[in-house]
Every structure is written in C-alpha cells, then in structure tokens.
Design a protein that fits this description.
The complex is a heterodimer of chains A (about 250) and B (about 425).
Chain A lengths: L1 E10 L2 E11 L4 E5 L6 H9 L4 E10 L2 E2 L5 H7 L1 E4 L6 E5 H15 L7 H14 L4 H4 L2 E2 L5 H15 L3 E5 L7 H14 L5 E5 L4 H5 L4 E6 L2 E6 L1 H10 L2 H12 L1
Parallel strand pairs in A: 3-10, 3-11, 6-9, 9-10
Antiparallel strand pairs in A: 1-2, 1-4, 4-5, 7-8, 11-12
Helix pairs in contact in A: 2-3, 6-7
Chain B lengths: L2 H4 L4 H5 L6 H14 L14 H8 L13 H7 L7 E6 L2 E2 L11 E4 L15 H9 L3 E6 L9 E7 L6 E2 L2 E6 L4 E10 L5 E11 L4 E9 L4 E11 L4 E10 L2 E10 L5 E10 L4 E10 L5 E10 L4 E10 L7 E10 L5 E10 L5 E9 L3 H8 L5 H17 L5 H18 L1
Parallel strand pairs in B: 1-5, 4-7, 5-8, 6-9, 7-9, 8-10, 9-11, 10-12, 11-13, 12-14, 13-15, 14-16, 15-17, 16-18, 17-19, 18-20
Antiparallel strand pairs in B: 1-2, 3-4
Helix pairs in contact in B: 3-6, 7-8, 8-9
The chains are: A alpha/beta (about 250), B alpha/beta (about 425).
GO cellular component, one term (chain A): cytoplasm
Protein name (chain A): Iron-regulated ABC transporter ATPase subunit SufC
Family (chain A): Belongs to the ABC transporter superfamily. Ycf16 family.
C-alpha cells in the first residue's frame, strides 16, 4: 500500500530525513519509535504533505500513485489520514460544518454521493460512539477550548468519519491519561481491518500495549536503524534508546 | 492646507446652498476656512489623503442635483428577504413617493433642529463643509415609547449630475424608550466619480435603543467621507455596524458620546478590501459619566494593493468612574502590497475603570490551512472557510436577520471568489 524508498527531506536547508525505506501492506500496523529529534514527526508530516518540508531525494508511492506529487487535500482524499500531534484550534469554524465539508469532498473524490444532513448526522452519531465523544463538543468551534484528551479523541473521530486506508498517528498518546489512552486506542483498533493500515508514531511503548504493532522500527538521525516485532518495543521500554544510539554511532565511526 | 481650500474651487458649493440655517451655515463656513481641508501632514488624516484624492478626481464641485429614480430601481436595491420600511434618498433628498415609511415616525425636511450641536463643525473640516453647504436635510423623529418593529432601510441613491458633490444631512432623534433600527445602503449610479460627504447626527434619549447598520459596497467611483456622531443619554443603547466592501477612498468618522450613566455604545466594523480600495475607520468614544460601557470590534481582510486604516480613540473623563471600555482590531493581510495602519488610542483620566484594547495584524494561519487540507478540503475552499470564520464574528452583531443573511452571502461570495 505504501512504499517509501530512500526518502530524504529537509526543513529550511537542514536535513532531517536521511534515507528512509519502509514498506507497509494492507492489514499491517507499524510502529515508528525513536528518541526525540530523530525525525518521527517529520516523516508523518512529509507523508501528509506539510509544505515546510522539502523532499530532496527518494520516492513515496501510495496505492501505486506518486504520493509526493499530490496536494495535501488529494492525499487525504486518496486515503491518507494524519492524526495531528497538536490538533489546531480553529475559532469560528464549527466542528460539524467542517467535518461535513471534509467528508463530502472526500466522498466526491472517491466517486460517492454527497451525504445529506440527515445521513451525515446518523453517520456522525454512529462514529461518535467509537471514541465516546460528546455531541456537545462537536457543536463547538473546531477544537476550540478542547482539553488535550478531547482534541486527540476528536482526531480519531475524524479518522473514523473519513475512513482512510492509511492512518498515521503522530504521538497520539502524548499527554493522554490512561482512560483517554484506552478510549483512543479502542477507537483505532475498531477501525482496523484487513484493507487498511496504520502507522503509529510514538516515543513510548505504552501505547503499543493497546495498539499492538506487527512491526516496530526505530528511527534515529533520520534513518530507520533497527526493525523488529513488538518485542523490540518492550526492549526499548526497558533499556531506553541509548544502546541503539551507541550501536549506530560506533558503527558510524568504524 | 489643500489648494481646494485656498483657491475658489469650492465656491460653487457654498453658492449652491439654500438660504435656510443661515447662521449655522455662516458659522460652519467660517470654521471650514479656518481649518481648511486636511493638509498632507494633518495627523487625523495622514493615512487618508482625501484632499489630494478630490483634487485629482473631482472636477465639478457643484452640488449634484436629484436624478431620476424609478420604482424599479428601488425594488432592485432592496435585498432579498428584507422585511421593513424603505426610505429613498435621491442625492440626499427624501423621495417620499418612492419610500414606504412607518406612520408612527415623523420624517420631514430639516427645519428647527439644532444641527451642529452633536457633530460640531469646529472639530472636523468635512463636518463644517457639510453644514455650510448641504442642500437637502432630513429629520427623523421617533416619538417616545415608540418601538419601530421593523428596520428602516435607507437607500441612498447617489449620482453625479454635472455637479459631483453629494452631501446628505440626516438628523435622527429617538425619544425616551424609543427603539429603531436603520440600515443604510448607498447605490452609486452613473460612471462619474462622486464625492459624498455625509453627516448623520443621532440623539438617543433616555432608555432608547438605536441600531445603525451600514453597507458600503458602491464600487470604485465612490470617494466618501461619512460623519456619524451620536449623543446618548442614561440607560440608552447605540450600536453601529459598518460593513465596507468596496470604494475608491472611504473615510468613516464615527463618534459616540456617552452622556448618561448605564448607557452602552457598540461599534462594529468589517472591511474586506481588494484592488486599490482604501477604507479608513476613525472611531471615537467619549465616556463622560460613570457606569457606562463601550464595546468595539473592527476586523479587516486586505488583498491586492488595498489599504486600511483603523484609529480607535477611547476617552474616559475623570468623572467617568466604573467605565467598561473594550476595543479590538484584527487584520489579515493577504498580499505583500496590502497595508493596514492601525492605532488604538486610549486616554483615561478616571482611576476605577476597566479598559482593554488589542490589535493584531497577520496572515492567514498556515497551520490551520494545512489542518483543513489534511482532512481533504480543497485549499481555496479551506482559505475561504478560515477567512469567513474570521470575518463572521463581526456579522454576528447584526440583529436584523435579513440584513445579517444578506451580508453573510455578500461576504461569503467575496471570500470564495475574489480572494
């Protein structure tokens, strides 16, 4: 579904990603871990199309299409979803209107009929249950005054509404208490199917107790330096990242 | 001083003035020549070179005579969904035949009103010019305890007819406990540039409630100075909403004098500018007594080479304890060439007051734009959505539903297509 080959990206001339290779197939869950500043969020942003990042080398294909060639909105319509690390507060834009516009633009792109108000509301009601989000929250302006946990739940709710084939969760666990973490993870797990894939970007192993990955990759200095199964995450939890850093850094000096 | 004042260029205006209010006119003329039109460096007009604009664009300083207005034109000018009364002005002159006026309110030519007692000629050269040379004045009086249920739409038809100067002069009085809403819409006819120099004086008595909404969307022939000044008494409320969408050069002077305790003055404005449109909002709130409140919110979106000016003066006198005064001006610049000059000006002499002001100027929030795009919303539409969210806050202060809806549709259309 997603194929990343030798991806290099930089921001304002500073290279952040220095040759990422990754294959993600339908039905899989990949975790991307790594110390702070290793490039995890950059990878998520580059995939979603954030303009500040410049791709200097490499290619990304998504369902056979050149992903890097698409505008952010077209990536979303093709089925890429980024759950933001810091969801943006947008005063004056109602959550419901925003979502209806988004859902219908995505549906239109996919050749589906636009949802009328009634159908949209019933879809919303159904998906709200997934993340136990309150209707009241959605009658407010988008993310405005939401708590950290509410914002993250809203991200997963939006994901449920847009039905992406590739979801990228960028530090979705950061700042969540254990209840919120459980709710958010539950939502993600219920949305999992044989047809879609998930990339979980996280610093901590904790989230992976709930969203169990098929593969774990460690990102360091802009490269994937180690890949393994969920046991790798447990090892990282126990030993920290230093041993990996040492391994990589000493290999580099040899 | 502008050459317009030093030479005889403006003489036709004074010669064209009727004989009524002779002492008021004489006084104003004297005041006008003492002040002169604002010079290039005049502080109050330094960002809006209206005198220079007039020198360049206006060649015939005769008062424009009334033109031909048909019922059809009036019908077309009334926006969809409007339910209320219609007052037609023809280059400043009331057209009773074409109007539909509420019977409980009196409308007449100015006669014994104390013109110049609210908008004082000594304070501004354009006010002085109007008072010295206006042709037709209109007096509107809402008797006490009269609540005019539906809004009064002032359709101000303006057209050069040889003379290119139009100077509407309106006196509005709301008696004790009276309530009334005005919606002013100017329709510019013909191809020639017009200089409109309007004075509206509003007197709100005890516990009165006056709303004055304005839509400035005349197109680029409009060179306009609008002077609205209001005195309100105890327990009364005045709200002005000014929506500016087009024009060549527009200067709005809005002055609000809070003269009685527990009075409330609200000033809201939205300017969406493109091309070379220049809109200047100068507002002034004078808190003279304790326990009064003023709220002010002006927002602007500027594209192309447009220019906006906001100057908000709040004056809290020593006696005006327990004053609440709030002011906010926010701007979004959409192009490198657009300019905004904004200046909050608070002068506070009382020591027990709550006053706040803030102004921001920025660009469209790129992070918010990306967030919307990342959810599949087209970039152009996402921009429109964000800009409307910004602008919509001002429109929420329009209480009349049909005018609110009309402004929403105009603004949405503009944000979707023009920007």
């Amino acid at each position: 579904m997603l194929s990343i080959k030798n991806l290099h990206a930089s921001i304002e001339g500073t290279p952040i990603l220095r040759g990422i290779n990754l294959e993600v197939k339908a039905g899989e869950v990949h975790a991307i871990m790594g110390p702070n500043g290793s490039g995890k969020s950059t990878l998520a942003s580059v995939l979603a199309g954030r303009e500040e990042y410049e791709v200097t080398e490499g290619e990304v294909t998504f369902k056979g299409k050149d992903l890097l060639d698409l505008a952010p909105e077209d990536r979303a319509r093709e089925g890429v979803f980024l759950a933001f690390q810091y969801p943006v507060e947008i005063p004056g834009v109602s959550s419901t209107n925003f979502l209806r516009t988004a859902v219908n633009q995505v549906r239109e792109y996919r050749g589906l009929e636009a949802l009328d108000a009634v159908k949209f509301l019933s879809l919303m009601k159904e998906k709200m249950k997934l993340v136990e989000i309150d209707q009241k929250l959605l009658s407010r302006a988008l993310n405005e005054g939401f708590s950290g946990g509410e914002k993250k739940r809203n991200e997963i709710f939006q994901m449920a509404m847009l039905e992406p084939s590739l979801s990228i969760l960028d530090e979705t666990d950061s700042g969540l208490d254990i209840d919120a973490l459980r709710i958010v993870s539950n939502g993600v797990n219920q949305l999992k199917s044989a047809d879609n894939a998930t990339i979980v970007v996280t610093h901590y192993q904790r989230l992976l107790d709930y969203i169990v990955p098929d593969y774990v990759h460690v990102l360091y200095k802009g490269r994937i330096v180690k890949s393994g199964t969920k046991e790798l995450a447990l090892e990282l939890e126990e030993k920290g990242y230093d041993w990996i850093k040492e391994e990589v850094d000493s290999a580099a000096t040899v | 001083m502008s050459t317009l004042t030093t030479q005889d260029t403006l003489t036709p205006l004074f010669e064209g003035a009727p004989a009524d209010f002779s002492s008021e006119r004489a006084l104003a003329k004297e005041s006008f020549y003492a002040q002169g039109l604002p010079a290039v460096k005049a502080e109050e007009y330094k960002f809006t070179q209206i005198a220079r604009k007039l020198e360049k664009e206006i060649s015939d300083f005769n008062p424009a005579k009334p033109v031909s207005i048909t019922e059809e034109m009036v019908k077309t000018a009334i926006f969809e969904g409007f339910d209320g009364y219609v007052l037609v002005l023809n280059n400043g002159k009331l057209e009773e035949e074409l109007s539909q006026l509420p019977s409980e309110v009196s409308f007449s030519a100015l006669s014994d009103q104390e013109i110049g007692s609210i908008a004082k000629p000594v304070k501004d050269a354009f006010v002085a010019l109007n008072q010295a040379s206006f042709v037709d004045g209109l007096a509107v009086s809402v008797p006490k305890k009269t609540q005019v249920e539906k809004p009064i739409l002032i359709l101000s038809f303006t057209q050069a007819s040889a003379g290119q100067v139009v100077q509407p002069r309106i006196w509005i009085e709301a008696g004790d406990f009276a309530e009334v809403t005005f919606i002013e819409k100017t329709i510019l006819l013909g191809e020639d540039k017009v200089f409109s120099n309007q004075v509206v004086e509003i007197k709100g008595a005890i516990n009165s409630k006056v709303h004055y909404y304005r839509l400035q969307n005349e197109g680029d022939q409009a060179i306009e100075v609008s002077n609205i000044e209001t005195d309100i008494q105890k327990d009364s409320q005045f709200t002005a909403v000014t929506i500016s969408l087009s024009g060549d050069m527009v200067r709005n002077n809005l002055n609000l004098n809070l003269l009685g305790s527990n009075s409330e003055g609200n000033m809201y404005g939205l300017y969406l500018l493109n091309d070379k449109t220049h809109v200047d909002n100068h507002t002034n709130v004078d808190h003279t007594i304790p326990h009064a409140e003023s709220n002010e919110l002006y927002k602007g979106i500027l594209a192309d080479q447009s220019r906006g000016v906001f100057n908000g003066k709040i004056f809290v006198r020593q006696d005006a304890q327990k004053t609440n005064a709030f002011q906010q001006n926010n701007n979004i610049l959409l192009s490198e060439d657009a300019v905004i000059n904004t200046k909050p000006q608070l002068e506070i002499w009382a020591d027990d007051v709550k006053c706040s002001h803030g102004c921001t100027t920025g660009q469209l929030d790129e992070e918010a734009l990306f967030y919307l795009q990342a959810r599949g919303i087209d970039k152009t539409q996402a921009k429109g959505l964000l800009l409307y969210a910004f602008a919509g806050e001002v429109l929420e202060h329009i209480e009349d539903e049909s005018f609110h809806n009309y402004c929403v549709s105009l603004v949405q259309e503009r944000l979707g297509s023009k920007f």
